[in-house]
Amino acid sequence: MWTEFRRLTSPSFRSKVFLASFICIGIPVLMTLLIYSYLTRDAVEEQAMMNATKELDLIEENVSRVMDDVMNASNFVQIDSELNTILKNKSNMTLDEIDAQSYKDYLEDRQVRKTIENITLLGEKSYVTILLKNGQYYTNYSTGQFDPLSFYQQQWLKELDDFNGFESYWSGVEPTMLTYERIQNPYQLSVARTLRDSNKGIYGYVIVTLLETKIRHILQNQNRLEEIMLVDSDDQILSHKDPAMIGQKAAMLTDIHLIENSQVVESNDQKYVVTNKDLTFNDWKLVSIIPYKVATSNINAIFSKVFLFLAISFAIFFILLAYLMNRITKPLRHLDRVVEKVQKGDLTVRATVDSTDEIGQFSQSFNHMLDQVNGMIEEVNQTHKRKRKAELAMLQAQINPHFLFNVLNSIRMKVYTFGDKESAGMIQSLSTLLRWTIDHKEDQITLFDEIKLMQDYVYLMNMRQKNKVVLEVVVASEAEQQLVPRFLLQPLIENAIIHGLNQGPGVIKIEANVKEKVLYIHIHDNGEGISEKQLAQLNQSLCSSKVAKRSNKGFSSIGLTNVYERLQLSYQIKPEMKIDSKLHVGTTIMIKIPLGGEGNVQSHVS
What we know:
The chain has 606 residues and is α+β, with helices and mostly antiparallel strands. It folds into two domains: 13-295, Beta-Lactamase; 464-606, Heat Shock Protein 90, CATH 3.30.565.10. It has helices at residues 2-9, 13-39, 41-79, 81-91, 95-99, 103-118, 155-159, 213-219, 251-255, 292-295, 297-343, 358-398, 401-417, 421-439, 447-464, 477-480, 490-500, 532-544, 560-570; strands spanning 126-132, 137-139, 169-175, 187-196, 202-211, 227-231, 237-240, 262-267, 270-278, 285-291, 444-446, 469-475, 483-485, 506-515, 518-525, 576-582, 586-594. The strands form four sheets. Strands 2-1-5-4-3 form a five-stranded antiparallel sheet. The protein has a five-stranded antiparallel sheet with strand order 7-6-10-9-8. Helix 3 packs antiparallel against helix 8 (213-219). The longest helix has 47 residues, at 297-343. The two termini are 53 Å apart.
């Protein structure tokens, strides 16, 4: 049972080859991929930060270009000598004097307005305001929408007095000053500078205002999952692609501390790549916030493609390996099936492997071995048959049957002549038995003739003992014509008379019939029977005995084991012989002989 369990649970040769291939190839590759993935994790993170930095550099370049245009406008007003001369002169005049200005003064005012118009044509559209200390102002927009003098109410304009001449003040995000612009451009950014004379005295201010949407459009050109904003030193959002966020505090920036230009941070249980870029002309900065998965999606996509390629490669490899293993192990599986049939006793099967490799050579050697085994079995069978014939010949020679047959015939005629018919019949029965021994050279006779011999044998036995034995015969007509070995029943009848009935009176019954191509013969006596222990030993001895032991009793001196062995040697499909007995009831011997097939008994037509 343990051997069968190990056979069922042990892996097949093909499974072992697959497992070895996976261990030697699959596991190292998988380990390499895992180690590679672990070692490149930092590289992926670094590459994601580099990509974010490059994108933010490009945005910073565009934002700086817009703000440079604003700065250039303020610079031009501050450093243009001709324009400054006019403005200084205007600042020294009262408003009444300006109102009563001459034509020359009018042309100067016109030149100032035309100049500030021209300086905003080349770059981004911006609004320029020049405020003089005496209340005079110049703009490139309609003052009907906004009073430039309102700038004096701004706190940052008062703080501007403390700045040096070339220092600029960025006001941060404010509501758009022009009413007609507020619908499309709700916010604006302004830069202001002081206008100073040769004594560094302030005679005016120049204010350049930029619409926030100019910067927003730049920020909106990025990935929709990427959040880019322009913030001041207090992390207040100055520009964002979502207008609702403008003017609010950048919540994430309050939770983290930016120590590098680009870094990976965690907020609300999520990882982000945060990149910041300081602007050169003020304390503002651009901040990019990208979810880590989005930042690494392109790189991870490459890894996914690599893994997919490897998975497909492995699938193809294992399919090819399975095909090759099937081709290689197919002869082995065929040999396994052949060996199983040989184990079950079929020695006619042969392996059909045509390859010239080691498996093919093994197949040829296995077939040659089966041929030798069949030859040896045939030789052993023939030897046993010759041995049995020699034993019968020896028995016949021991009683000198020719001499006895001739003498018995003479005695029978004389006895019959003197009128002793009973003795003459006894001699005739003995002569019949001897005639079958001498004249019939074949090993098999019909069951009908075998029973006739047994009737003569019982008649002789009744003559030599006081108590008579009754022989009953119930044989089907189909069974009578079946061939059986000569003297098959004699040792069984003899045992029944001597051992079963103890040479006393009794009944011996012979039954025979044919069912489903099997000849059944039953020999029953109503003698003393056999104990269960002796019966078990006797049935076991029939299967294990190899040589029939002679007995000093009986007609033929051939025992039960000899009958069983003769049956086994006479048929290719082995007959069965079983003894059944009960004490004080009797004994029954059952013989089961399969019919048909080479070497089996065949029907005999008399």
